[in-house]
Amino acid sequence: MKIDALHQLFLDCTSICTDTRKVKNNCLFFALSGEKFNGNTFANEALTKGAKYAIIDDAKFKTSDNTILVENSLKTLQELATYHREYLGLKIIALTGSNGKTTTKELINVVLSKKYNTTATVGNLNNHIGVPLTLLSMDKNTEIGIVEMGANHKKEIALLCNIAKPDYGYITNFGKAHLEGFGGIEGVIKGKSEMYDYLISNNKLIFYNAEDTIQEEKLIDYNSKVGFSNNNTTDYNYTLLDINPFVTFKTEDIVIKSNLIGAYNFTNLCAASTIGRHFEVTLNQIQTAVKDYTPTNNRSQIINQGSNSIILDAYNANPSSMDVALKNFSIQDTKNKIAILGDMFELGDSAPEEHQNIVNLLSFLDIDKVILVGENFYTTNTENSNLEKYKSFEDFKNNYKTIKDSALLIKGSRGMALERILELL
């Protein structure tokens, strides 16, 4: 079936589904296969549960006219997403980076929503499946689409850009994330810069942080760009006023107060404000959007639980994000600061060194007590008397002593699931 004909079938359906547990009446089901399962085996179940059509790529599972055979279900999903994106003809803003992608995406969305009908990536649907699903969730009411792109190896951002075909792009930063897949920090820079490669080759507009020397150098000879900084040399300029406890900043004569912690979120706020201003959202509208935004999903969430004040930043962690989170926590004006840190994953051969670097950093920070959880942190050399180590979460749980009247930072990679600590507290 040609992609234009498939698109007509898609328009007659209510939604896209790839999981039979989430099938809705009249949805279009795509049988996607993984390393441990064959999605085609679920096609008939999807139809039985109410799917209008099922896309398969194995002929022996074709049971009716509602089962549509294609050469490759995943590739067809991606091609359909691109076709739909071009059919709608809307503006697409893409963003990637090592840290802050999701928070920045959400900030851009709340800012632009003050003036436009927007559709943005939900949660972390930012990979080769998530990006197509995001595009296919857009409709004729969508004026601007905001697409987050994640990657853990080279050529992935290039693929996602070719699927989404963005008109605008922004890279939050280049940090020590997914070092194993990228092959080191140089690989990270090259992989994330694939977004620049796409945007520059197609003469699209790039938003950039002029305080980031890597971004500045890579875009020095490119003219279609909009920059921001904390001085008067770029298109938009911002001044950080306070970070204790939340980020407050100023641009022109407008003071903007947020519910976000850490100087690192100042950059994310500046990016969202810059993109909003480029699209003619007023500063007063931006001020309201930022004031009303509260982070969720274990990303720098502020939680008051009993006598404890908690920064829950357990969605993910890498050396770069761990470094800035700890430095920010150490300067908070509060008593009895306790950091509970979980292992950082996907670092490959760099894991021992990067975990040791974090432990070494802790010696210079104003944090009263540190609890390290995970095999990587457990093998580090530690000399601090205020530091405890546990090989696993279960070890920590079994030895847990009540924590009261404290300020806590909880941070670790997703696989550590440190939000479980809330139950103990």
Automatic annotation (TrEMBL):
One Gene Ontology MF term: ligase activity
Residue sites binding ATP per the record: 97-103
Pathway: Cell wall biogenesis; peptidoglycan biosynthesis
Reaction(s) catalysed by this chain's protein: D-alanyl-D-alanine + UDP-N-acetyl-alpha-D-muramoyl-L-alanyl-gamma-D-glutamyl-meso-2,6-diaminopimelate + ATP = UDP-N-acetyl-alpha-D-muramoyl-L-alanyl-gamma-D-glutamyl-meso-2,6-diaminopimeloyl-D-alanyl-D-alanine + ADP + phosphate + H(+)
Listed PANTHER family: UDP-N-ACETYLMURAMOYL-TRIPEPTIDE--D-ALANYL-D-ALANINE LIGASE
UniProt record similarity statement: Belongs to the MurCDEF family. MurF subfamily.
Name of the featured protein: UDP-N-acetylmuramoyl-tripeptide--D-alanyl-D-alanine ligase
Organism: Olleya marilimosa
